[in-house]
Write a structure and sequence with these properties.
The protein is of the alpha/beta class. It has a single domain (27-55, 88-301), classed as pyruvate-formate lyase- activating enzyme. Helices cover 38% and strands 18% of the residues. It has 13 helices and 13 strands. The protein has helices at 67-71, 79-83, 91-102, 123-126, 128-138, 156-165, 179-185, 192-205, 226-236, 254-264, 269-275, 283-300, 313-319; strands spanning 6-11, 20-26, 32-33, 37-39, 42-44, 49-51, 54-55, 84-89, 110-112, 143-147, 168-173, 209-216, 242-246. The strands form three sheets. It has a seven-stranded mixed sheet with strand order 3-6-9-10-11-12-13. Strands 1-2-8-7 form a four-stranded mixed sheet. It has a two-stranded antiparallel ribbon with strand order 4-5. Helix 5 (128-138) runs parallel beside helix 6 (156-165). The termini are far apart. 39% of the residues are buried. Mean pLDDT is 91; it is low at 1-15. The chain binds iron/sulfur cluster (SF4). Iron/sulfur cluster (SF4) binds next to loops.
Amino acid sequence: MSDPGRTIEPIPDASAARPLAVHHWQVKTVLNRMGAIRRQGVSQKIADWSINPYRGCQHGCAYCYARRTHIDFDLDGAASFEREIFVKSDAAAILRGELRRHGATWNMPISIGTAVDPYQPVEGTQRVTRDLLQELCAARAPVTIITKNTMVLRDADLLAEIARRSYCAVFVSITTLDEELARRLEPATPPPLKRLAAVRSLVATGVPAGVMIAPILPWLTDGSGALEELALAATRHNANWISSGTLRLHPDVRPIFFDWLSRERPDLLERYAAWYVRADPPTYYHDRVHARIDAIRASLGMPGGPPAYVDPRPVQAALF
Ligand code: SF4
């Protein structure tokens, strides 16, 4: 697929088997309209609008559902997804215009990072996420963020300001407390304990933050006591909520994850092949895990998500 709007900027990375390439990508829009997501026969809407500053993710999680977005670009969803990162150039200026045209009313928070991580390492030099947050803060737009990276702490002051002006909720994704498993499964992410420490720091700075135990991987991260210990650790690090989700394997992503299994846990290949005939695991597993998470949350007195966003304007209009 060719696009004259893209240029390639190679970045030396001695530690990587393959050099990192950053593609500057001229986009026309930054705000993406989101439809409902259907899982286990249930439709759910997580946001009306999403923003993904990047395409591709250096974190390289073996199970990542966003790998398929690289396949849409005629790139491979394995190594290229992790080493060829598309950066939305001029994103902040484009967003500023979109926010102006959209007006001040939002039914739901804008969700940043629904596809790939907005705080993957390349954000350290490109700073697209930070620039976008400044626009959202100026426009008093409500925001949610999903990340696995402690770099989110760099923007804690800005996120706290967004929380004061409108609404902010940061979901820090942690799949396991097992550092070795996390390193193999999510190779370029910070260790789980550092992510927990980031949750504590965010909350201390005035940024509502919770732990997202997702994806829960059958036979890998759902062992006896594992989810309970992770939820307890989240509580001890002052997480404001614990959300969760089971592993979903899109047909394009399944072979990549199965390659990982064949290297790391070949003993699980047959079981996964039997369960992941479709994208979702069997309903009885999904229901059992969620009942378990509900029980854990109840025992810890922990909600399953942040407080709902309430558009303040109808209230203000009623007052004046
Ligand atoms: S951090 Fe998220 S987007 Fe990045 S590879 Fe992992 S699952 Fe995919």
